[in-house]
Write a structure and sequence with these properties.
The structure holds two protein chains of two kinds. By secondary structure, chain A is an alpha+beta fold. Chain A is 28% helix and 18% strand. The chains are: A alpha+beta, B alpha/beta.
């Protein structure tokens, strides 16, 4: 599988990635929020396939359980009650790693090879290399990775790379009862999305569209939304996600000079400042672990 | 279901009312999504709550819980007054043209024949006018004021949009949107499917809710059509199978009746239950009642059942009163029962008024609980603090716990909502000391029989004469039981020409082979054909779909006779032409009916006077239900037994269903002044009843009890989402988290504001989820007048900050 790794963290661009396996298809997961019934089968399938069990929590008066993503909750359903022209809509979105074409987590990771991108587009964390610095948390424009307070490592959805590598769809896709989660080549999923968008527009959702944000080079997890003009309605999906300028700065200019220790230290400190928010929040969240 | 799950994809309009399939049937819901995406169908949800189903619907129409009949008769009124009905269908395939007796009437909320003292009806007048041959009189011109069509028109004319708004709280504007969507399917090439579940049945007018929709579907010509029908979505894995096998107080397998003590012998009983044909030449398939019944007795009593002893008729228990579960709990509370065997249900959590259940169980000498879990029922005597505040020392009931298998640990057939018997195999063995459910029951049966054999006793014949021919009588194999249900020939069976069609001992392939002379057996006549000499039909797994309509006749086996759409002859016009060429299921091949589905019809050629509703004595769909329903041949709006209005705006003297059974101790109804809000209980996708709170993954996804309330009620009570509240009824109180949501709204009804309190039922004092109260502490033990299903969907509560 290492021959599939076309991008790895903290690795000089002068070190070329393996290029023999150039016949791999770019994959994508397409999540159609308009036929999602919020059943959470995807959450359970993720837990079962990946062998993790978060603590049994409490209800806080909404259907979101677990209440947020966590080191042991790589995908969660987000429910939003929105009133449009006097009509209530209950928007549901499966949240989790977007598998960016231009991954902010990978770019911000200071450990060589701790975050990798496969030729098919899947972005994965190599947990035994993770030092728990939390930079990926700051580098993610979607607020996805979560640190485990026990081992300090950071976790997120792997897009079931272990399943995809042997020709199976991700566990959430296989379990989804309404086929709201689909999986295939990125091109094929875009065609599928076009059909869905056309159908939604015929039903009066003039702003229906595909969420495949170009600020991160497109994503390998895409959404069909009724209101593609306002993705924030869906549990705060960012409208124009982009990698933090600090990460771009660090990668684009300083990285070739990484040997210069004092600059790296400066950058790291700055990044840690950005990253500290989510890490702290996460610590509280998983206090019981 | 008259139709089946896959068939939902053929609908042009999916009406979800009295159910929430996205929540409770997420896997089957894919066919609703399929209808939307591939058949351009509209989905409409009519419900007091904005549900998960509503989240993916095109239209959501709110109504106050317990007012579905008002809404539906309002729709019927719209269809009739705007001439949006399928005329040819209504005239030929319903009883619209039948004349009703002159002494039938409806006045001020009561139909003719009411006995106020006994709270029952004499239904004699709810019948057709008969001619000298005993056949129903008809007026095909529909001009006679006594024909069903005109009586129905008059009956529903009171349900104007203004009345609907006043009773249901649905604005006239939203109601009009709904009516127009219904009306679009009145054309022959458009169908509407009706999906319902416990949201209709768990009312004191539950059966009539379904009747109201059946009337609409008949007016629209949607019964028998692919993409149409009245489709009950069954909840528990095998609850359809339980119904088919007659696990009810006055039923026997295959929808046969358990005789009451009024019928001293078999001929008297059969004469009373076998319907007389009401229109010349109709199929009237229940005319074969005696064949099904005698075959069942042969199955029960084997060689001991002979013509001389009326096939063991005397050994059947004869009922004196409706000994259903609610009566039984009341009798138990009164100390009239010594013991109870509880299997397949977590009684304490699932029955209404759980404080009453605890009082009743505490009176028992012994309680046997057969269950995979150490559930609330077998732990009712344990003190769990505020969640089960009992004193174990004062409870003398001896509890026996028999750990049993889960469905995935058993082999056998499950019957799904679409009447499909699907054979399944064990996924795992029962852990620990657990045994199959059948092994638990057979073990008890054999032990009791041995005791009677050695020690004697009174009235032991039914037990000792029971046929029990299994290889291992302590653990009957699923295969053997399935074949027993199917039935066998006990002699060589010949056809009319004297040719042998089945040899002695062979399995029947159709219930048409059954005889009433004791030469056939069959434990459940509607299952005949499921396991034939050709093998186990339920284990078939071909998903070939030659029709493209999702019929898939080679996938498992559906009762009756592998028919997927009931009354499918009604998908064709009287001349045998499909109402919609795109939905062609059947055709006449010159000599017989054939098609993609098994024809639901006799041999009468196209254009004959034989009508498609072959199970009806009159051959037609009933807009008017002759004598069958407890509270009237037409549905009528009655308020829930606990009404927030304290009156019925249509007829103040008859507020609630006049024939509901109210037992002593159960008349503890709440005063709306003290308990002003309408509570309704329901299920969530994340859980299966009270079983999965013992499963960690389910508990993670919905860990803790909550009540859903509107923003207006939250403001009134002074709470926010996540705060603890106390919800109380006149029967008990529970504390749980508040979930304040826009999905629940206040209704303006009859000049007052009515709030809804939504109560998911999944938590209790056992399991791994957060401990909670049983929601059924609050509910009332009064049920539907026909089926006795408790009114879980509309009862009165108060809400306070806890």
């Amino acid at each position: 599988m290492t021959q599939d790794l076309i991008q790895r963290s903290a690795t000089n661009d002068l070190t070329q990635a393996p290029q023999v396996r150039d016949f791999q298809q770019q994959v994508a997961k397409l999540i159609d929020t308009t036929i999602c019934i919020g059943c959470k089968a995807c959450q359970v399938a993720c837990s079962e396939w990946n062998d993790y069990r978060p603590e049994i929590g409490h209800t806080v008066g909404v259907y979101d359980n677990p209440a947020d993503l966590g080191p042991k909750a790589w995908t969660v359903m987000r429910y939003n009650e929105v009133v449009e022209n006097g009509k209530l809509q209950w928007l549901m979105r499966k949240d989790g790693c977007m598998h960016c074409e231009d991954p902010g987590c990978l770019k911000s990771c200071p450990v060589p090879g701790a975050i990798v991108k496969h030729a098919n587009g899947i972005v994965d964390f190599v947990s035994d290399l993770c030092t728990g610095c939390g930079y990926c948390i700051a580098g993610c424009p979607f607020n996805i990775p979560r640190q485990n307070p026990v081992d300090k490592r950071v976790y997120k959805c792997t897009l079931c790379i272990d399943r995809v590598s042997v020709g199976q769809e991700p566990a959430c896709v296989k379990t989804c009862p309404t086929s709201a989660i689909m999986f295939g080549s990125k091109e094929g999923m875009k065609v599928r999305a076009d059909e869905r968008v056309a159908e939604l527009q015929s039903r009066g959702f003039a702003n229906a569209g595909l969420y495949d944000p170009q600020g991160v080079g497109g994503t390998h997890v895409m959404y069909v939304l009724h209101h593609a003009d306002r993705p924030e309605l869906y549990g705060g999906l960012p409208k124009d996600p982009a990698i933090s300028p600090m990460v771009s700065f660090w990668k684009g200019i300083f990285k070739p000079l990484a040997a210069v220790g004092f600059i790296a230290t400066f950058a790291a400190a700055a990044l840690h400042y950005i990253g500290s928010g989510p890490v702290t929040e996460d610590d509280e969240e998983d206090h019981h672990d | 279901m008259t139709n089946h799950w896959v068939d939902i994809k053929n609908a042009n309009l999916v009406v979800i009312m009295g159910g929430n399939p996205a929540e409770a049937h997420p896997v089957g819901f894919r066919w609703v999504v399929d209808a939307k995406i591939h058949n351009n169908a509209k989905v409409m949800v009519i419900d007091p709550r904005f549900t998960r189903s509503a989240a993916v619907a095109d239209e959501y129409v709110p109504l106050r819980s317990g007012t579905d009949i008002t809404f539906l008769l309002g729709v019927a009124n719209y269809l009739l007054s705007n001439d949006k009905i399928q005329h040819e269908y209504v005239l030929n395939y319903t009883n619209a043209s039948f004349l009703v007796r002159d002494d039938f009437s409806f006045n001020e909320g009561l139909f003719s024949g009411y006995d106020a003292q006994k709270r029952i009806y004499d239904k004699a007048s709810w019948a057709y006018q008969l001619d000298e041959h005993g056949f129903a009189k008809r007026d095909p011109s529909l001009s006679n004021p006594r024909c069903v069509f005109n009586l129905l028109k008059e009956h529903v004319s009171r349900y104007t949009p203004e009345i609907v708004e006043n009773i249901c709280g649905t604005t006239q504007e939203r109601f009009k949107v709904a009516c127009e969507l219904f009306a679009e399917t009145a054309t022959p090439d458009k169908t509407m499917t009706s999906l319902y579940a416990l949201g209709w049945t768990e009312h004191t007018v539950g059966s009539q809710n379904i009747r109201a929709m059946a009337i609409i579907q008949l007016l629209l010509g949607n019964i028998g059509m692919p993409g149409g029908g009245i489709n009950a979505l069954r909840g528990h894995t095998n609850v359809q199978g339980i119904t088919d096998l007659g696990i009810m107080a006055t039923a026997l397998p295959g929808y046969l009746a358990l005789p009451s003590e009024k019928f001293p012998d078999l001929p008297t009983f059969l004469a009373a239950v076998t319907p007389k044909t009401l229109v010349q030449g109709q199929v009237n398939y229940w005319g074969n009642y005696s064949k099904f019944f005698v075959s069942l007795l042969k199955s029960f009593y084997g060689d001991k059942a002979t013509p001389e002893n009326h096939f063991g008729y005397d050994w059947l228990p004869k009922w004196d009163r409706l000994n259903d579960f609610m009566y039984t709990m009341s009798a138990m509370e009164d100390g009239k029962l010594n013991g109870c065997i509880c299997q397949g249900i977590n009684l304490l959590a699932s029955f209404p008024d759980s404080n009453k259940s605890i009082r009743a169980l505490s009176k028992l000498k012994y309680l046997v609980v057969i269950d995979p879990m150490d559930n609330e029922t077998s732990c009712f005597w344990q003190n769990h603090g505020e969640f089960n505040d009992v004193n174990p020392a004062s409870i003398q009931t001896e509890v026996f716990r028999l750990p049993s298998s889960c469905f995935a640990e058993e082999e056998g057939a499950l019957v799904n909502s679409g009447r499909l018997l699907q054979w399944h195999w064990k996924g795992a063995d029962v852990p620990g000391e657990g045994r199959d459910d059948s092994e638990c029951i057979a073990g008890i049966m054999m032990a009791v029989r041995r005791l009677y054999e050695s020690e004697g006793g009174k009235a032991v014949e039914p037990l000792l004469n029971m046929s029990w021919n299994y290889v291992n009588p302590e653990a009957p194999a699923a295969e053997a039981v399935a074949k027993e249900m199917n039935g066998r020939a006990l002699v060589d069976l010949t056809d009319a020409g004297g040719n042998v069609v089945l040899h002695k001992g062979q399995l029947l392939s159709s219930f048409a082979q059954m005889r009433d002379d004791g030469t056939t057996t069959g434990g459940c006549w509607i299952f005949t054909g499921s396991w034939t000499e050709a093998g186990n039909q339920m284990a078939r797994r071909s998903n070939a779909d030659p029709s493209g309509l999702g019929v898939m006749p080679g996938w498992a086996w559906a009762w009756p006779l592998n028919r997927r759409v009931l009354y499918n002859r009604a998908s064709l016009d009287p001349q045998g032409k499909p109402w919609d060429p795109k939905r062609k299921l059947l055709w006449w091949n010159g000599a017989a009916w054939t098609g993609y589905d098994v024809p639901d019809f006799g041999a009468a050629p196209p254009g004959s006077a034989v009508m498609p509703f072959i199970m009806q004595a009159d051959g037609v769909g009933g807009l008017f239900a002759q004598g069958k329903m407890a509270e009237g041949p037409f549905p009528e709006h009655y308020e829930p037994i606990e009404t927030p209005l304290g009156t019925n705006p249509l007829h103040p003297n008859v507020v609630s269903n006049p024939v509901t059974r109210i037992m002593k101790n159960d008349d503890n109804f709440g005063d709306p002044k003290k308990y002003p809000y309408v509570a309704t209980t329901y299920r969530l996708t994340e859980h299966f009843h009270t079983l999965t709170k013992s499963s960690k993954l389910n508990a993670i996804t919905q860990p803790e009890a909550f009540a859903e309330i509107s923003e207006t009620l939250a403001k009134k009570v002074g709470v926010q989402s996540g705060d603890m509240i106390k919800v109380s009824s006149s029967r008990g109180a529970i504390k749980l988290k508040a979930a304040v949501t826009k999905r629940i709204q206040m209704f303006k009804v009859n000049g007052q504001e009515v709030e809804t309190v939504g109560l998911p039922i999944h938590w209790g004092f056992k399991g791994v989820a957060v401990k909670g109260y049983l929601a059924n502490r609050l509910t009332t033990a009064v049920g539907d007048a026909n089926a006795q299903t408790p009114e879980y969907k509309a009862f009165l509560v108060n809400v306070e900050k806890a």
